[in-house]
Amino acid sequence: MSDSVETAAVAAPVATGQSGTVVRSTVMRRLIRNPMGIASLAILGSIALLAIFAPVLAPFEENFANITKTLAPADSVNILGTDSAGRDTWSRLLFGAQLTLLSALLCAGVAIAIGLPAGLIAGYYAGKFEAVSNWVVSILMSLPGLIVLLTIRAAFGPSVWISMIAFGVLISPSYFRLTRTAVQSVRNELYVDAARVSGLSDWSIIARHIFSVVRAPIIIQTAAIAGVAIAIQSGLEFLGLGDPTKATWGVMLSEGFKNVYLTPTLLLWPALAMALTIGGLVLLGNAIRDALEDGEKIKHRKKRAASSATGARPTAGPAVARPSRKSVAAVDAGTEHHLVKVTNLGVGYPQADGTIKKVVDDVSFHVDRGEILGIVGESGSGKSQTAFSILGLLPDNARIVGGAIQFDGNYTVAPGDERVNQARLSKLRGKRISYIPQEPMSNLDPAFTIGYQLVTPMVRVLGISKEEARRRALKLLTDVGIASPERTFSAYPHEVSGGMAQRVLIAGAISCEPDLVIADEPTTALDVTVQADVLDLLRELQQRLNIGVVLVTHNFGVVADLCDRVAVMQNGRLVEEGSVRDILRNPKEQYTRTLLASMLEGKTPMSMLVSSQKEPVA
Amino acid sequence: MSTQNAPLLTVDNLVVEYPSKKFRAKPFRALTDINITIGQGETLGLVGESGSGKTTLGRAVLGLAPVTAGKITFEGKDISHATRKQRRTLSRDLQVVFQDPYTSLNPALEIGDILAEPLGVQGMSPAEAKKRVKELLDQVGLPADALHRLPREFSGGQRQRVAIARALALSPKLIVCDEPVSALDLSTQARVLDLFLQIQKDTGVSYLFVSHDLDVVRHISHRVAVMYHGEIVEQGPAEIVTRDPEHPYTQRLLLASPVPDPDRQEQRRADRHRLLESQRHQIEQAGALA
C-alpha cells in the first residue's frame, strides 16, 4: 500500500492544471514519416524519373533491332539482354515506362474529367440531373469492361490511347459515386448556407467550398485507378491486342511469354516493373489515407517502472463483492462510508511526441448516498472527463496519470493504476452505477424499440425473466411521467420527442436500482420547459430512491435547482468546492465570480456584461 | 430605435411549407401567418422551443426557406422570391450569423479568405478587401495574426467572432442571428453578447435575434416575439413580454428557466407548479364548456 502511495506521489506532475499541448503534424510530414508512404513515393518517383529521362538514359531506340544478336543474355552493351528481334530490353523498358505511365494517367484523367463534374453537379443540385446520371452510371457499371474494350480494339485498331480513353469512361462511375456522396454530406453545411447568403454563385460555391471536400478522396482513388489501368492495359497487350510498334510493358510481357522457355528473364523485367508500379500506387493510396485520418497512431507508452508496486495491481474479480486484502488495496480508513471518493485524480492523453496532455489534474471530491454533487465548468474544463473516469468510460488512449477513485469502500482506480480497472467496473456499471447522457437521441439505438432497450439490461443485470422485466419497464415508464407507457414501450426512438427520449434514458438509468447516477449535462439538449420537467423528475426520483448523483452541468440555474454541493472546475482543476448556497452566494474564487457574473438573470437589459473588465478575448 | 420611420424589414402573413416526401401527402407547414417588423437599429428577439419555426423564419428572410405565401419586404422592396442575382445585391444589407460556429466556417479556408469572400463577391479588390478584413478582426476583438490561421485553431467563442466579422464585412443593415450564443460557454456567451451590443451601438445595425433562451432574448432585444408551433403567439416590448407575459406558453417559458440561487429557485419552482396547475384547470374548464 505504501508503495503505491509513493507511486502516486512520484507520478504527480510538476505542472499543475491542464498541461501539455495537442500535437498534430501536417499531412505531408505524416506521409513521409510513414515507412509505407516514403517507400512508395521513392519507388514511384524513381520510375517516373526513369520514364521522363528515357530518351537520355536509353542506349538504343525502342525499336532498334540488331538481328545478329537476338535473345542475348545481359552484357556490357545490352545490360538486360535483348529480345527475339534483337531489341535492347533496358531501352524498351524505359520507353515502355513512359507510355505505360502516360496511358494510365490518361485513363485516370478521362475518368476524373467525366466523373468529378458530374458527381459535383448531381450531389449539389440533386433533382433530375442526379436521376439521369444515376441511370447512366448504372448502365456503365453493368457493361462487361473487357468485352467492351475488345470491341473497341476491333473497331478502332490497336491504339493504347483509345483503349485507355474507353477504359477511363468505363471506370468514371467510381469517381462519380465518390464525389456525389461527399458533396451530399456537405451540401447542407452552414458554411455553404453562409456563402449563399453572401450571394456567391453556385459555381463559386462548388469551386471554393465543396471541391475541397472531395479533393483527398479523389487523390486516393486516382492512385488505385492508375494501378488498375496499368493492369488492364497490360492485360490487353499480353493477349496480343496491343500495338506491336510501340514499346509498352504489356507488349514486352507478351513477347517474353512467347520466349519463356528460351529466355525467362524477358518475362521477368516487365513483370517486375509493373509489380513495382502498381504496388507503389496501392501503397501510396493507403499511406495518403492513413495520413489524412486524424487519429494518429501513438505508440504505447512504456509501463511505468513504478507499477511494480504489486499491491496496487489486483487480479480482478471478487474484490468487489468481498474486499480481499490480497487482491486489492484497502481504501484509507474512515472514508469507506463515502459512496464515491475521488482523490487527486489526474487524467491525460499521450501525444504524438511522447508527452502527455493532461486534461484533469489533482481533482478530489466525494459524494455520499442521497446527495447530489454538481460539477460545474466550461467546455474543456475536464468535468466530463472526471465523470467518465468514475464510470470507467474514458477513451482507450486515456491514461490515469495520478490519484485514485473509490466506490463504496473499494478502489475502482487504485493509486498507481494507469487505467480504469474494467473487470471491477463492469460489475458495477449498469447495476450500481448508471449514466444519464447529454444527447438523448444519440444514446438510444434507432434499430430497436424502446421497450427492448429497457428490458435487455434488466434481464442481464438483475437476472429476472423477460415478463418480469417488461412489467418493471412499464412501471418505470409510468414513474418517469410518460403518459402512455404501453405505446412508448413499443415505439422506436425516432417516434418520440427529445424530452420523452431523455425520460426513457432516465428510466433506463434507474431500472437496475443503482446507488450512484452520473448525469452528464442531462438537460442541455432539451427545451427550457422540458428541462424544468426533467429536473423535477430527477429530484423526485433521487429523493425517493435515495441515490447519490454526480451532475455535470454548465448551468448554475440547474445547480441551484438540484444540487446539495457544488464543485467548480477550470482547466482540469478543481477551483472551489462547497455547499450550493456558499458557492452561489459567496464565491471565494475569482473564476467562480466571473462565471456567476456571466449569468443574465437579474442583469439590466442591454448593459455590458463583462466587457468593462479588461479580459482576453473568448 | 426609430419605428416611426418606415421599418427596415416587414414580414406580412408569411407562410412557409415544405413539400412532403410522401407522394400526394399534405405539405408540412412550418410557419403560419407570421407578421413582424424590424426598425432601423432595432433588435427583435425571437424566442420559442425547438421546432417552433423560429429558425425557419430567419431562413425565409435570408432566402434559404421557400416562401409559400405572404410577403417579405426589405427597405420597401419585395424580397420574398428574390433571385440569386438580387440576393447578391441584397447581401450587402442582409447578413447572417449561424448557431454552430464549428460548421458555419469552412474548415479548409484560412480566416482571411473566409472574411474576404463576401467582399470579393461585391467586387472589392484584394488589396482593399485585405484592409477591410483587418478592420473587421479588430472590430470583433481578434488578433491580426488570425488572418492566416484555420478555423480549427480557434475556440468556439473565437470562431463565433469570425462568423460575426463575416456578417459585418459589408456593413449590413440587418443581421439575422440564428441562436448565435447557444453553442457557447457561459462566460463566452456574455462576451459575445457584449460584442453584439457594442456593434449595434457603433454601426446602428438591426438584429433579428433568434434564441431559445428567454434570458438572452430579454438582455439583447428591444422587442420580443414568442413563437409556438409555427405561429407568433405574443409580441411586444421586451420588458413586458419577458417579465409579465400574457400567453400561457410564454408564462410557462418564463418560469421554466432556473435561477442561480437555491431558495429563489425553489420559489420559482413552486410558482411554476402553481401556474401549470391553474393552466390545466383552465383547459379542463374550457373543455367542459365546449
Overall pLDDT score of chain B: 89
Succession of helices and strands of chain B: EEEHEEHEHHHEHEHEEHHH
The amount of beta strand of chain A, in percent, is 5-15%
User: Reading side by side through the largest sheet of chain B, how are the strands ordered?
Assistant: 6-7-8-3-9-10
Radius of gyration over C-alpha positions of chain A, nearest whole angstrom: 34 Å
Number of domains of chain B: 3
CATH architecture identity of the largest domain in chain B: 3-Layer(aba) Sandwich
What kind of sheet is the major sheet of chain A? 6 strands, mixed
- N-to-C terminal Cα separation of chain A, in Å? 45 Å
Distance between the termini of chain B: 44 Å
Number of strands of chain A: 10
Helix count from the secondary structure assignment of chain A: 22
| Rounded mean pLDDT score of chain A | 84
What is the CATH C level class of the largest domain in chain B, in words?
Alpha Beta
Shape of chain B: globular
* Low-confidence blocks of residues of chain A: 1-15, 295-326, 613-618
Task: Tell me about this structure.
The complex is a heterodimer of chains A (618) and B (290). Chain A is 51% helix and 11% strand. Chain A has 618 residues and is α/β, with parallel strands linked by helices. Chain A is elongated, with a radius of gyration of 34 Å. By secondary structure, chain B is α/β, with parallel strands linked by helices. Chain B folds into three domains: 1-93 and 172-184 and 195-244, Rossmann fold, CATH 3.40.50.300; 107-169, no CATH class; 258-290. A six-stranded mixed sheet of chain B has the order 6-7-8-3-9-10, sandwiched between helices. Chain B has a four-stranded antiparallel sheet with strand order 2-1-4-5, covered by helices on one side. In chain B, β4 (69-74) and β5 form a beta hairpin. In chain B, α3 (111-121) crosses α4 (126-139). Chains A and B meet through α9, α10, α19, α20 and α21 of A and α2, β6, α3, α5 and α6 of B.
